[in-house]
Amino acid sequence: MAKGSHPDAAIADSDRSFAEACVDAKLSLFARGGDLEEAHLLAYHPPVQRNPYQQMLYASAYEHSFACFPLVDHGEAAPPPVNAPLGVHYHWVHRVFADCASSREAARAVRGFFETVDRHQQADIKILWTVHNLISHSAAFLDEEINLRAGLGARADFIHIMNPATVELCGRYYELNAAKTFMVPHPSYFSVYGDYISAEQARFDLGIAPEDKTVLLFGSLGPHKGTRQFLEELDGLESKIDNRLRVLIAGRSGNPAYMEDIYRLVADKPRVSLIEHHIDDQAVQRLFRAADAVLCPYDVGLNSGVAATAATFGRPCVVPDILVPAMSGANAGVIGFNPADRDSLATATSRALEARANPATETSLYQWAERHRPTAISRQFFEALRERW
Amino acid sequence: MTASDVNSEVVDQVQNKPRSPEVLAGAGFSEVSRLALAMCRLRVLDFARARKYIIPRRALSLLSLAGKSGKTSVLELTVNTTGAHSERGAVDVVVRSFSFFGREVGDIGGCRFSLFADPLNVSDAQRLYAEPPVGAFWTLVTIQRHADTRRIGIFGSLRPKPVADGQPLVLEAALASRDRRALEYHLAHASERNDRKTAMRLLSRMIFLERRTDDIRALRFIADIDQILADLAIKAHAHAGVQTGYRFTSLSTVPFDNSVPLSKWLASEAISLRAEINGQGPGGGTVVSIPSGPNRGMRILTAVFAGYSILPGGEQDGIGAEPDHIPWVKGEELLSILTAS
Known about the structure:
The complex is a heterodimer.
Chain A: H1 18-31, E1 40-45, H2 53-57, E2 66-70, E3 86-90, H3 103-122, E4 126-130, H4 142-155, E5 158-161, H5 166-170, E6 181-183, H6 199-205, E7 213-218, H7 227-241, E8 245-250, H8 256-267, E9 272-275, H9 284-290, E10 293-295, H10 305-312, E11 317-320, E12 334-337, H11 342-357, H12 359-371, H13 374-388
Parallel strand pairs in A: 1-2, 1-3, 3-4, 4-5, 5-6, 7-8, 7-10, 8-9, 10-11, 11-12
Chain B: H1 3-15, H2 22-26, E1 30-31, H3 34-41, E2 53-54, E3 60-65, E4 73-81, E5 87-98, E6 104-105, E7 111-119, E8 126-130, E9 138-145, E10 152-155, E11 161-162, H4 171-176, H5 180-192, H6 196-210, H7 213-235, E12 246-247, H8 262-278, E13 287-289, H9 296-305, E14 309-310, H10 331-340
Parallel strand pairs in B: 1-2, 4-7, 12-13, 13-14
Antiparallel strand pairs in B: 2-10, 3-9, 4-8, 4-10, 4-11, 5-6, 5-7, 5-9
């Protein structure tokens, strides 16, 4: 990893320079026996550790003569000291604003970001961007973030999208040039998380009675996840579906003020369990296996790792309508609702619980997960990238 | 002291457990008084300048005038613990700089030092060096202990002083010290002399003390050169049996610098060289000639690394006069490999 170890340093060489990483990349590609004429280097930024997405996306890189490595400080990228083309692959770009306290600082951060990207392009470094969200969930500087995304979209050589409606949906905020985009869906978590605990064991471990209809809300807790509104509406939702729900809410806690709301809302709901910490990769299975359905009651979304995780464990998932195309092929296992119509959330939840009762749903979701396993999606990604690069 | 007291102390020492706070008091350390604590909160009391104090749980700070920008200043602090062994990271010291009007200048959040706490029978001061950045008028030094339960004592002024001119520690003393400036001084001298052995000893000590990425990278870089030159010295040989060979005229990429370990740089270049020679068709040969030109020394090293023999001949002129500069490699050392090739 290049300069400045990541706070959650992965098991990677955090002491090598960018140049050394490039040379290592070439040597490892050569050791694999690939054609060096085909070699490509892809430095990704920002590297994230707890979310396995990047490792999943790059799982088949070597098959396509790509060597991918993390880039903590994207300003470090420079023409590599080896004869191989280099690209910088941007992911969650809103992290540009991590240290910004004001709009002015945010605007300055955007300018600095663009200067770096422009410098890269002048040095013949390709720019690739994966559009994970329309706007970041925690956007504190909306105008600046729109500017950032628009500017990166205009500069990028290639744009990876995971939802076929991305260009249209992003158009509400900023334009993406459709000609630069290529569609490769979000991978499933097939063989990523531990998967050996039975549903019965998981429910027993969590104290869930066999007859309890259980829904899971998974992922870091924040306003964007719709958890607060869901809890506020839970009683009404239960009466609409004529079913008492056992609710599991699991994920890293958000900002203290938001969490106070959550604590207040769950305090008088004994059937809601709040597990407010990061869920270990081996523990993810327990939550998903125990659930009858997974809810993503988001206001907005473009792609969802949670929905892909639910499918991996064979559990139906309720998602905002605009997310349904991103899960194409999951059939009745992915049920959309209209965030503007809260009744539709109850209907979708009811349908998800019905789908859970049908064994064909689980089979269909497993098949989706198998087709979308990380190695397969990674292969699609690099084939599409190579066609364009 | 009774026999049981002695026994319990021995057990404490073996387990490195804290003993009663009285142990520090017995060694001359005292609690910070309420008045002194209040003054420390105002950041105006240099509380441990003249007396040994037990560090309270809350951080203490001192605001003082910054020295001249760019001129190194030093804090000398003695830190003790009731434990029987030195404790790494027992105390953190943060030095921050501010303009006259209170705006932070230099690195935001300041420069952080992690100090060892030594057993009571060790009284060596640890020296912390800092350079006030341009625009600095105030320096704020904050000290905080890490351990919750262990009693940590401190002695020394929190007011940075200009570094006194004078003889630096001799090498062996520097190697036994925690004085980064002394270690860096000898490292710079080792660099001038391309003395890898001494540099590796110094860097090992610096890494042991602080585990800085730059130090780790530098040690790996030098150790790699050390190893690769030893290997090349064995491999290098000239080939006298043939008259022609592949003409290796230029490197495939950028010349070697200190951003990549030599072994990796050579491996990368060797791949390109082999690909080039193999591309000439079957029987591309096992011998290369290295004409004069830029980076000739590095081309020879690459060829040797790749396992080729070097064709001797008049074109070798120029090797000895001024071989390529390789960081941490003495000219004569490189020459002995190049001329053996």
